[in-house]
Specification:
Length: 197
């Protein structure tokens, strides 16, 4: 696991985001329908993962990796028995799938370019990399959804602040106008009073 405090904080924030999502929102976040890794489609990755999971006896990979691959397959295929799933359970699966490097190096496009370097089909679909590749994409989608949610929240806050500021300006303007009218009325009364004397 990454010792970085940034990664721990990001993990906590991602966990809070995941835990507030509805089952339908979770399924949308983890869907591989519109996913691609360079020239490799999400459906190609899912097909390869299905093949990997259906041939457990042929794999020389550790059982924990195989179980994580099977769990990830259920997640990206939105198998209902997996949901709802706590962030703790999701992160355990992602840690197992990534050999405890989930979020250590980030999920940015630059990291994708560094890891796959134009050879996603060759690297990502190799049996020994398939589960980690799937984990990387799930993590990337989760972070993108979280950032989009934060951006939407920031826009909502900005809109509320602008509305409050406009309301305060209208209120201040109204108060100034009322004081001006009172002053005019007072002056008018005083002027009328002087005329009657």
């Amino acid at each position: 696991m990454c010792p970085s405090s940034d990664s721990t904080k990001t993990r906590e924030l991602l966990g809070a985001f995941w835990d507030k999502l509805s089952v339908d929102e979770i399924k949308e976040v983890v869907s591989f329908k519109n996913v691609s890794l360079e020239e490799v489609s999400g459906s190609s990755i899912v097909r390869a993962l299905v093949s990997f999971v259906q041939k457990p006896g042929f794999s020389s990979l550790p059982q924990v990796y195989f179980r994580a691959g099977s769990a990830l397959l259920d997640i990206v295929q939105s198998i209902d028995t997996r949901f709802p799933m706590s962030s703790h359970d999701l992160f355990r699966i992602l840690d197992d799938a990534s050999e405890k490097t989930f979020l250590c190096a980030g999920t940015a496009e630059s990291m994708q370019k560094f890891v796959f370097d134009g050879e996603a089909r060759k690297i990502g679909l190799e049996m020994e990399n398939l589960v980690a590749c799937t984990c990387f994409l799930v993590g990337q989608k989760l972070v993108k959804a979280w950032v989009a949610d934060k951006d939407a929240g920031a826009l909502r806050c900005q809109k509320l602040l602008v509305e409050e500021e406009e309301a305060a300006k209208r209120s201040a303007s109204g108060a100034v106008e009322r004081r001006r009218q009172k002053k005019q009325q007072k002056e008018k009364v005083e002027t009328n009073g002087e005329k009657t004397q």
